[in-house]
# Entry
Amino acid sequence: MNNGTTASTAPAHAGAVSAPAVFAAVDIGASSGRVMLGRVSTASGVSLETIHRFPNGVVELDGGLRWDFDALFAEVLKGLTAAAAVARGNGERIVSVGIDTWAVDYGLVDKTGALTAQPYSYRDERSRATVERVHAVISPEKLYATTGLQYLQFNTVYQLAAEPNLDGVQALLIPDLIAFLLTGERRTEATNASTTGLFDAVSGQWATDFLDAFGLPRNIFPPLVQPGETVGTLLPAVLEQTGLPADTTVVAVGSHDTASAVAAVPADQEDFAYISSGTWSLVGVELDAPVLNEASRKANFTNERGVDGTIRYLRNVGGLWLLSECQRTWAAQGFSQSLPALLDSAAALPAGGPQINADDPAFTAPDNMPDRIRAAVRNTGAVFPDRPAAVVRCIMDSLAAGYARTLADAERLTGRSTSVVHIVGGGSQNRLLCQLTADATGKPVIAGPVEATAQGNVLVQARTAGAVTGGLAELRALVVTGTALEHYVPAAALQSSRS
# Structure
């Protein structure tokens, strides 16, 4: 594990940084995005100021579920414009911009730099039909032995197989596409590249033999860049529109949002497990090297790159998408109870209620989620009260049980034990979920920070600028300094201490 900066992450323009320096984080998830200003100091850690929030979501367009990328990029520019104004008003200087988003999706850009169409969403069903075709060329066993990537039907490799024509275009993953439109430079950041199914988990380079086998151009993706490297400076048109300083750079961060989130896990020991809890739940441990054996493949664990050459050994588990989709359906039906009230009602229900497999692909697409959950419970033969609180408790119990199973599998497959579970992201605010996770895993849970992704984004930028130094341990110590963390004790341990 690399615990220090490398030549590629040395301060790119430390001499040009004037105090106080601030950093702009563009952090976009599958349902919303934000532009934040980050301030870093050894005394107070990382502080974030939300400058601009905006919605995101799939739209039905041109025969499929797509992202309205043009609107998304317009919101990014609006946020950067506002951030520049705030920084000027505070007498601060934005040194750089870092971008993180969800993984696997991409936009196709032609030779002129134009986007050929709005990017497909991973929730579109088009890639389902290509899975067998891909596996006929390279077996799932060989794919995993090279890429170490968890099988998901929407991985980039399956999406590319659904493209009718790739002549004369390049695929830019979503954060790389934003960086390209800001700088004119085409690069692929490595943590996100590792989610494509076309990246060698050991060498850290593109699996060119796979590209050849699938008939993909070797330059289908731009060259790789590592977290901490500078992608480029802002284009004149971007500078004019946003008012950002002329020497503002775009710095590659852990552009897969989970990579940035894990970089900001406030762990002060190595034997920790993490859960990045949001639309999806990413549950795993941090390793020095990938685990590529058949047992790992059958358990459907993934080996994705993290900041400083680490491996995020994890499995995608169902997430709070189930809850947010239920809320959306209930709101449309006129049920307007707040989320805190719903969670309180769910917490009041007795333990031992019905559970579902939160990872079931049946829950991937947007639809009437409460009805689908009820149907899944009926299929187990369980009795299920027909009220929202029962549905919410079922989701929470099911997620916690899924987390516990996944962590037990991670320990078994890696041969290492964990003593604490860190929950970061939106789910860290969900007290019911955090307590149920502690109970299900039998391990103490430390919850926070909520904005781990943006904090990891800012910390990598700050290190590149020379504002902070050190490896992940030092970066994480800054998160601990600046974050109020919640601690949850497993119910069994609490009862034991009282007896």
Observations:
- The CA atoms of residues 275 and 283 lie 5 Å apart.
- Residues 1-17 have pLDDT under 50 and may be disordered.
